[in-house]
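#lab-general

N.A. 3:47 PM
ok so I finally got the sequence cleaned up, no stray characters, all 168 residues accounted for. can someone with queue access submit it? mine expired

B.Y. 3:52 PM
send it over

N.A. 3:53 PM
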Amino acid sequence: MSKRENGFTLLELMIAIVILGIILGLGVPSYNSITESSRLRAATHSLNSAIQLARSEALTRRETAAACRSNLAFTACEFGTDWSRGWMVVTQQGADLETAADVTVIRIWDSINLVASGAANGFVFDRLGRGEVTGALRIQNDTDHRCLSTNATGRTAVQEISPGDSCP
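B.Y. 4:20 PM
back already:
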């Protein structure tokens, strides 16, 4: 009497590997899309949090505060439209948001690997929380686009936009 061995045959193993390859081939692109969408949402949330923190600091401290693009040393604002290298919230004691001696840094956000552009003069709030400088930021990856904007009262709004649309 011969005893049968337990296990997989080479043919069964190859079929299982082919099926696994097909499943992974279908799943990985979907996973990448979900990951990119999540990164975009996180960046938008971080920028929105920075703007709200700046407004809150202006009200709390009764002085001008701003959410702005960081300079290279992360010591003061640097005005320009590319926010992807990082941003910060500062309060202003002197005459200039771009001079380190005139501001107090409240919080810093590091760079992101997404396109974040617009609001060249940052988001600046007076001591009553009103927007002295308002604007809109466009945050985007290859497929999704969002617009983050503030109005003169200091309220923020986030909306999804189409690739060809401009931020309101």
